[in-house]
Amino acid sequence: MLVGLYQLELFIPESGSLKSKRFVLKSLKDKIRSKFNVSVAEVDENERWQRAVLGIAMVCNERKFIDQVMNQIFNLVSEESEVEITNQQLEIL
Q1: 39: number of CA atoms within 13 Å, CB side?
Q2: Taking a C-beta distance cutoff of 8 angstroms, is the pair 83, 8 a contact?
Q3: Lesser CB count within 10 Å: N end or C end of the chain?
Q4: What is the pLDDT of residues 46-58, one digit of tens each?
Q5: Using the 8-state DSSP alphabet, how is residue 17 labeled?
């Protein structure tokens, strides 16, 4: 059994309040969850208007599949016009 942990640091340039940030993140998290069946949560930068860190986790039996899913998630988030990825980190346990 392998656990994939993916951390995405995001910049949300249009966000002017925590409320608008939460709206953008909720939409993004819902898209990721429904398309890839993974766990997603905001794990850091909770009180900053234009910054967010998403933690994404999945359990699988093949590293190749984890890499593939996390790459697809990266591509999905990259295509979002409301956020910019500033950093990413993948860890497999």
Answers
A1: 9
A2: no
A3: N
A4: 788 899 999 999 9
A5: S
Query: The tokens of 78 are what?
Result: 């990259």
Q: Which pTM does this prediction carry?
A: 0.89
DSSP assignment string, 24-84: HHHHHHHHHHHHH--EEEEEE-TT-SSEEEEEEEEEES-HHHHHHHHHHHHHHHHH-TT-E
Write out pLDDT tens, residues 78-92: 998 899 999 999 999
Residue 38 backbone phi and psi in degrees, to 5: -125, 170
* CA-based R_g, the chain, Å: 13
Taking residue 44's Cβ as centre, other Cβ atoms within 10 Å add up to 12
User: How many CA atoms, within 13 angstroms, populate the side-chain half-sphere of residue 71?
Assistant: 6
Question: How far is it, in rounded angstroms, from Cα 93 to Cα 89?
Answer: 13
Secondary structure (3-state) at 7: strand
